[in-house]
Design goal:
The structure is a single chain. This protein is mainly alpha-helical. It has one domain. 47% of the residues lie in helices and 4% in strands. It contains 11 helices and 2 strands. The protein has a two-stranded antiparallel sheet. Strand 1 and strand 2 form a beta hairpin. It is globular, with a radius of gyration of 17 Å. The mean pLDDT is 82. It binds iron/sulfur cluster (SF4). The site of iron/sulfur cluster (SF4) has 9 residues, from loops. The site of iron/sulfur cluster has 9 residues, from loops.
């Protein structure tokens, strides 16, 4: 399969920074290296096709979007701090080189991780902080459409599993056929249309008041 890219997150981040007022804290959060901006926006775009979301008032949609952003930001901060304290040498973790190798057919689109919850069958559960299995198994809450541990690799404009070496067994079993199936569905292209994504991004920035999100997630 051709190694296509779904999105250019750096371009999107530059555009958001250019249009937002200097010091806008929502933009600062969305543009942090690794923050799954594109997936968050695709998530919101996806919800537009769901009845429970479209039947909400516009105020309720804004409140829900801010709640979801706060939940993402909170876990992002927790995972970042955990990653910052990981031992530098991979061999000090209980995993093999196979656990660290990305299969050749993977183009890091992250579509396989755009599933909010999965079977929490982790080979090294003791290495993960308490509560993370639960996040993986049940997702981050209503409206969240992608894995709590999916980040962005800004240098490659693709997805990044933030717990790759410790990921669940079902994540390791995902093969080229399933991968191709996702690529051939209409959703990746439709939901990644640059103009649509930018429109959702501006809506989010315009309506997110960072003060409505717990200050604990800033930092
Ligand atoms: S744990 Fe990693 S590989 Fe598994 S679904 Fe989440 S981001 Fe993807």
């Amino acid at each position: 399969m051709e190694n296509q890219k779904l999105f250019d997150s750096n371009r999107l981040k530059r555009s958001l920074k250019r249009k937002a007022k200097a010091g806008n804290s929502t933009v600062k959060l969305l543009c942090r290296p690794g923050f799954p901006l594109y997936y968050m926006l695709r998530n919101l775009g996806w919800l537009k096709g769901e009845r429970w979301w479209t039947s909400l008032s516009s105020r309720a949609r804004r409140v829900n979007a801010i709640r979801m952003l706060g939940q993402r930001a909170s876990l992002f901060k927790e995972v970042k701090s955990w990653r910052d304290n990981l031992p530098a040498a991979p061999e000090s973790l209980p995993c093999t080189s196979q656990d660290l190798t990305v299969p050749e057919y993977c183009n890091k689109c992250g579509l396989c991780c755009e599933v909010a919850s999965g079977m929490d069958d982790f080979p090294f559960p003791a290495q993960l902080p308490a509560g993370w299995k639960e996040f993986f198994g049940n997702g981050l809450g209503k409206g969240h459409r992608f894995c709590p541990f999916l980040w962005e690799d800004n240098s490659a404009s693709g997805g990044l599993c933030s717990i790759y070496q410790l990921r669940s067994r079902p994540c390791r079993l995902f093969g080229p056929d399933e991968c191709e199936f996702f690529w051939n569905s209409s959703e990746p292209g439709e939901l990644s249309d640059g103009k649509k994504i930018l429109k959702v991004a501006r809506w989010l920035v315009q309506h997110s008041n960072w003060r409505q999100i717990s200050p604990r997630v800033i930092g």
